[in-house]
Amino acid sequence: MSDYKLLLIDDDEVDVMTFQRALRKSELPHHLNICYNADEALAAIENTSFDCIFLDYLLPGIDGLQLLRKLRDMSINTPVAVMTSQGDEKIAVEMIKNGAFDYFTKSEINPDKISKVVFSAVRLSDSEKQRYIAEKKIIENNSRLNAILESTKNLIYAFDRDFNLISFNSSFKENLEHLLRMHDIVKTDINLRDLPLSDERKQTLTQNIERCFLGEQFTVLEQVSFSNDTTKETPWYETTFNPIIDGSSSVTGVAIYSQDVTINKKIEQDLLQAKNDAIAAAATKSEFLSNMSHEIRTPMNAIIGLTELLLEESFEGTILENIKSIKYSADNLLVIINDILDFSKIEAGKVTFENIDFDLRHRMAELRKTFDHRTKEKGIGFEIEIDSQIPSVIKGDPYRLNQVLFNLVGNAIKFTSEGFIKVSATLMASKENTLTLQFSVKDTGIGIPENAQAKIFESFTQANTDTTRKYGGTGLGLAITKNLVQLQGGELSLTSTVGEGTTFFATINYQIGNALNLEEKKKKEDEPTDLSRFNILLVEDNLMNQFVAKQFFKKWKNELIIANHGAEAISILIERNDIDVVLMDLQMPEMSGFQAAEIIRDQNSAVKNTNIPIIALSADAFLETRRKVIEAGMNDYVTKPFNPEELYSKIVKYTNKAILPLEI
Ligand code: ADP
How many DSSP H helices and E strands does the chain contain? Predict the structure, then answer.
């Protein structure tokens, strides 16, 4: 135990000696400093930290009281015990008021008294020290919390159980002051009910605070105005209610954190607006495309149809070559138009896929038929290989598969001048009912340089700048193909060496199909092309299309009955009961095909046979149009320019069979 550091301030030699004697007798380990006046004492106090000061209140110069005050001003907290003469209690009380912790009369100076005073001084300064440390901690904590509260522009405030505002940061204060038009609310006790808020707002706030007092923490999104400025948009706040819990786990208040989320809300609204605008724009575009598609395909129908008819005549030499060129160019133009329409549909997210059972081998045989002629003409080989493990019937979209392979094989032939093209279908994986098939299209053509390999899948991009000049094309084919493959859950990739050739790989998932659902139209070779026994009504406004159709039907020994629009068709069907099938164009003046079909199907209409088969003929190939056709009560659908075989077989189907709805 170290010595107690004691200071005695007394100008009386006798008193000093009495004190020293008593102290020695007390046997307290100590170190005693003695000062005879206030100045000396102040100097000593400044240099040494004492455990206890014994002060004679009667000093020369400044007296004990003044010295005490001085110590307090200097923030010196050393415990001071005052020694008085008999009968000076009043003075002693005054000294206590000014910071002394104890007093005793000089006659009481004895070892016991001194020990007691020293011990209680030490105890006092220990607890003083602890209080000081605790206070310092509280101050530090508060300033840390304050810094956190003030580090945000968001509003932080708290209410107690009686809805008194107990805490807030300056952002809250600014807003509140603005609202209250008050200068300083720090001095004012504010209760929730005093706030100039609408009754409704107060009620919500009260309810939320009460809910939070039950111990629940939650966040609400609300629109709150702190200003009367009606030109400004009311800001949005995301407000979190947090219970303030004390040491005994009871909720003593509610802390509220309000974050201004107006900007986020605005961005959200702008995004939503942009999204809706984009959807509207896409719809407009899609409508435009549907119209354009009609406008372009109608004359194409005439060109292709009439050229086909011309090719069946016995022309020779240059005329025959010219007709073939017209057919070739028209076919190409149709492919380009279809590509552009397809690409727009992909962009608008409007591509839909069939999910039907089909025979892959049959499809591949069709593919061979499509390209046999072109490969033979170019003098290159054409092979197709199908993995025997692939089941004969699979389920998916045969038309899109055809489109993918058609594009890849078309390119392969285009960019190959000698060698061969090989198309393979391999079973890559089968899991439960799902089959992953890989189709590869290999050629021995010009190849694609490595730096162009990724680029060619982008729309309107070709491997070389002189490709268009040499080979033509729009650069859309692969972009469409890749999208079609990806939309079916697959991937399109390639390997290629310049000068050696290219192989494209497309993986697509299918399901195992059911042969019972197969509806492949296998054309019978000996099918008679004779429709003479039927009365067929063609509803078509375009004179050129009427002409083309008439030519085909003449070939099939049939005199078409013609109506120029829907209304005319209705009058014919009211008059005649002997019509077997109606071929209905969709977009017509006076009355559209849809309206006409609805009237025909109406049981209350004057039409004689309301169940008559109706086959829609339309220039646009959108799946939505097909759906609308069925909704209007028509039986089937053929796209223009029509494939004569398809139209023929559908007429046969509906004139012979009961009415079957078209599967979409
Ligand atoms: P395009 O209509 O121009 O053929 P594609 O998107 O189908 O458009 O093809 C883009 C480009 O990729 C082609 O212009 C060509 O440069 C290159 N390409 C595609 N397939 C092959 C291939 N089998 N061999 C060589 N180059 C090819």
Answer: 18, 22
